[in-house]
Amino acid sequence: MQDQTEAKVAVATRDEAARGLRRWASMGLPLAGAALILALGALTAKAQDAGEDGLIRAHGISTFGELRYGPDAPHLDYVNPDAPQGGEMSFSWSSGSFDSMHPYSRIGRPAVLSSIFFEAMLEGTADEIGSAYCLLCEEFAYPEDRSYVIFTLRDGVTFSDGTPMTSQDVMFSYEILRDEGLPSFRANIPNTIASAEIVDERSIRFDFNPDSPLRDRIQSAGGLPVFSEASHIASGLAFEDSRLEPLVGSGPYVLGEVEPGQRVVFTRNRDYWGDGLWITQGRNNFDAIRIEYYGDSLAAFEGFTAGNYTFRQESSSQAWANNYDFPALANGTVIQEELPDGTIASGQSFMINLRRPQFQDVRVRSAIAHMFNFEWTNETLFYGLYAPVVSFWENTWMEAEGLPEGEELALLEQFRDQLPETVFTEEVFAVPESSPTRSLDRRQSRRALALLEEAGWVPGDDGLLRNEAGDTLDVEFLNSGPLFDRIINPYVENLRAIGVNASMNRVDNAQLQQRQRDADYDMITDHFPMGYEPGSGLRQYFGSLGADESLFNVPGLADEGIDALIETVVQTETREELDVAVRALDRVLRDRVIRVGQWYNPSHWVAYYDMYRYPETLPPYSLGFLDFWWIDPEAEQTLRDAGAL
After folding, report:
1. CA 359 – CA 347 distance, rounded (Å)
2. Which residues are within 8 A (CB) of 589 and not within 5 positions of it... i.e. 6 or more apart?
């Protein structure tokens, strides 16, 4: 685990393969097709004129504003439509192994990008917030009340095995994800979609629950991944069974080579049905995408310097500052760059497991948060390169500030009996800045001890804090990577200095994954990847129903006030209403102290062999190295002639 784990690579690989869509994942598993339920689930349709049959027909949908691209757009603005196709993009993965190519099952650990085979009706872009366009569909139609939607498949859509996609495949995918998919699918789909009906061979109708939010309806249906029913039947396996032979999808890549735990290669589908669409121009440019698995990040870096793979997105400030001095970089074979990253901070945090009895009191959680010294960590370990994660919508206009006022206060007042008084009387929670010159900040220690004493934790004869029952305040940090030791150990020492029985337990990746699935941890590093237009996906990260069912609600949060604010966010109908509701939710989430925010990087740190090229102006919401980068054939040949490849 590196100081940003491999979050940026994980998000990037999902985003690029899934065309910039937001993350839908558990324990680092990329489930790109399902990401639309979260990311596009927040979209609402722009008002348009209905036809004679009372239906609005559209090629795309936007939440609160105009679509950037019309139906006659030649290509996305940020791609090079004349990019040459060919060559290989290769990168590494060192956060665990894999033994499956089935990303929609809890059995087994899917390989990175194992959702690359599947597409959905709707497709997001990397230069807009809250827009989606027809990919599998040629159009969709819906009444003004959005009680249902009819998607019409494009003529000529085929799966990678050459068989045509029909509305029956769409129906099959919907039904099996609803009935046998991951718990998150089974919980979320019925909340929005009441039923589906095949209209004809190319058209399918989804009827929505009348109580479901308008903003979630069309996109919840349009965001479901579609796979071949025939391929599932032919496999002879139950849908939940792990498998190395993936279900057949319609995407631009197919499985080329797989060595469990070592390597996976995806190769271009030469007969990809979507070549020629405006939305695919200048994209999917590589003949192959290869992912090399390593036991740890140090070995992975050595693999890059040795030329075993050719693109690296760095997530360690220590490595970025100190390790990029190898010969291939010095002679120009490898390029090192910092590229702008306009996305929301990943939300990387030490998650506090609220299911544990010692963490029930918010004062205990607040005290633990006060003892993490970000300023010292950043200066001493990260070369001052990072910014702190404070808000759940860090680095956006939606983060809460100061005391609540105006429309935000008016909204919070509606739920006053469900919210702590501190929401109204204290400025939004944030740990004050600590000393950058020493790890243990005495001011923070005094504040933390005062909070713990208020919560009933007092020093025993051995110096450890104990409650009335004589129990020590145990805090175990679960960790699987040696590079993260240098961050956790000083934090543990700070906690022990005030009497907390803190420790770090290093486990292997398989144990880490299983214990996280079983909610068997005190504190663990994970992410809250929020979106610019959050919707029903918030229920899975923060809702009470997801506390025991959703793998995304890592802290096990169950709070009626937060549930009420989530529903307010989901029901908003204007951008202004959404911003107010999100700021209120951010304020209350921070007040509950369910995590200790870590850090984020406002830039992409990349190093690559000097044959890759990218558009002059990158879009704000995606690095796009798997999506719209390409290889310069002459530069590639130069490297080959020099023996660098």
Report:
1. 21
2. 392, 542, 562
Amino acid at 99: D
491-508 pLDDT, tens per residue? Answer: 999 999 999 999 999 998
Q: Give the span between the Cα atoms of 602 and 33, in whole angstroms.
A: 26
**Residue 224 has which token pair?**
């479901």
Q: Which of 396, 404, 341, 355 is nearest to 515 (CA)?
A: 355
Length of the chain counted residue by residue: 645
Q: Is 131:20 a contact under the CB 8 Å cutoff?
A: no
Is residue 464 within 8 Å of residue 473, measured between CB atoms? yes
At 369, phi and psi to the nearest 5? -65, -35
Query: What is the reported pLDDT for 8?
Result: 37
Percent of the chain exceeding pLDDT 70 equals 92
Lowest mean per-residue pLDDT among 37-41, 54-58, 574-578? 37-41
Q: What is the pLDDT of residue 551?
A: 80
* DSSP at 461: T
3-class state of residue 286 by DSSP: coil
Structural contact between residues 159 and 165, judged by C-beta atoms closer than 8 angstroms: yes
How far is residue 483's CA from residue 485's CA, in Å, rounded to a whole number? 5
Structure tokens of 247? 């279900």
pLDDT at 625: 97
In angstroms, the CA 391 to CA 410 distance is 21
| Sequence-ordered list of residues with C-beta below 8 angstroms from that of 53, at least 6 positions apart, any chain | none
Backbone angles phi, psi at 168, to 5 degrees: -65, -35
* SS3 per residue for 511-553: HHHHHHHCCCCCEEEECCCCCCCCCCCHHHHHCCCHHHHCCCC
Q: What is the pTM of this model?
A: 0.76
Structure-block tokens of residue 191: 């909340």
Give the pLDDT confidence score for residue 48 in this predicted structure.
60
Closest of 132, 514, 519, 227 to residue 352, by C-alpha: 519
* Average pLDDT of the chain to the nearest whole number: 89
- The amino acid sitting at 84 is P
